[in-house]
Amino acid sequence: MKESSKKLEAKTLSMKIADKIRNEIIFGNYKEGERIIEQNLSKEFGVSRIPVREAIRLLESEGFLEISPYKGSVVREITPEAFKETHTVRLCIIPAMLENAFPNYTAKLIKQAEDLIDKTEKNMTLNNYLTFLLKIQDVMYGPCNMPFILHFAEITLKRHLMVLGIYYNSFNQGMQLDGYRKFFELCKKKDHKEALNFWMETLKYHYQSMADVFQQWTIDKKVSI
Question: Ranges for the HTH gntR-type domain (predicted)?
């Protein structure tokens, strides 16, 4: 029993470390190609290298890190192909999540979403916007009660946020919440079919806008090297 508890504690610790590193990558504090050094993280968290190593393996499996010759674990480069793959997965799973979530939407949940939109709008910084996207996903898709799909949705969103950080930082693009507001207005009217159609069209439009800009960013980056 004690052995099982130790394993659970180590797993929980490694997941916490992975969450911390993942967020640092998403918010741009770790750059593409930057080394993730086990010894430094062990010292920072005050733990042995074992949970740090497990956290790094987890992030490698999620596509945030990769093994680079002579460097070890580094932040993975974001490519247009990886961005397209991530978005394709999201377009496949979001309709199923929303169709199962709609029957569980309540007035309280919609009010929670509206309050979150209002709060973010009052202090619209990049960090606040990215934090908003993480929180609003739980509100929108969490009620679908499909844990396996929600797990993939969370991973793909976090990979997607890496591109969003580049998109807004590098090109001074405006951060908009109008789409979220309209989506929940439709849900308040229980016009779920229209809400789903509107949301999917919104996602496709934003993907194309970001894909064009991101493609140019990767070309410019290669030229500058």
Answer: 11-78
